[in-house]
Amino acid sequence: MLVGRELARPHSIVVAAQPTRGLDVGATHYIREQILASRNRGKAVLLISAELDEVLELSDRIAVIYEGRIVDVRPAAQFTERELGLLMTGQRNEV
Q1: For the chain, does the N or the C end have fewer beta carbons within 10 angstroms?
Q2: 89 Cβ partners below 8 Å, 6+ apart?
Q3: Are residues 43 and 69 both part of a single domain?
Q4: Residue 40 resides in a domain
Q5: Is residue 91 in some structural domain?
Q6: Domain with 3 in it
Q7: 30-43 b/e with 16+ CB inside 10 Å = b?
Q8: Does some domain include residue 54?
Q9: DSSP for 5-67?
């Protein structure tokens, strides 16, 4: 309920850091739906997550950060889960 209340507020940006960590399947589904609904209402959503499937499902564009530096930015559809994981661990040359 707390998440629903926060997402319903009239802000133009939503920052979601590890939004589904530790949640059960039903709660995870609900949170992901709410994030997508916020985006569809025109809010900017900044998602910070180590869950690769979540990043790919919820993102329009992905910026990968490794050791404090942005190493790649592109539309989510241009990433594979494997490639995203490699970039997140600093293995850019193997992509």
Answers
A1: N
A2: 66
A3: no
A4: yes
A5: yes
A6: 1-48
A7: ebbebbeebbeeee
A8: no
A9: HHHHSS-SEEEEESTTTT--HHHHHHHHHHHHHHHHTT-EEEEE-S-HHHHHHH-SEEEEEET
Q: Do 41 and 79 fall within a single domain?
A: no
- AA letter at 78: Q
Whole-prediction pTM: 0.78
Bridge-based pairing state of the strands 44-48 and 69-75: unpaired
Q: In the chain, how many domains are there?
A: 2
Q: 29 and 66 share a domain? A: no
At 24, give phi and psi (nearest 5°).
Answer: -75, 175
The token pair that represents 60 in the structure block: 């329009």
pLDDT in tens, the chain (95 residues): 456 667 677 788 999 999 999 999 999 999 999 999 999 999 999 999 999 999 999 999 999 999 999 999 999 999 999 999 999 999 975 54
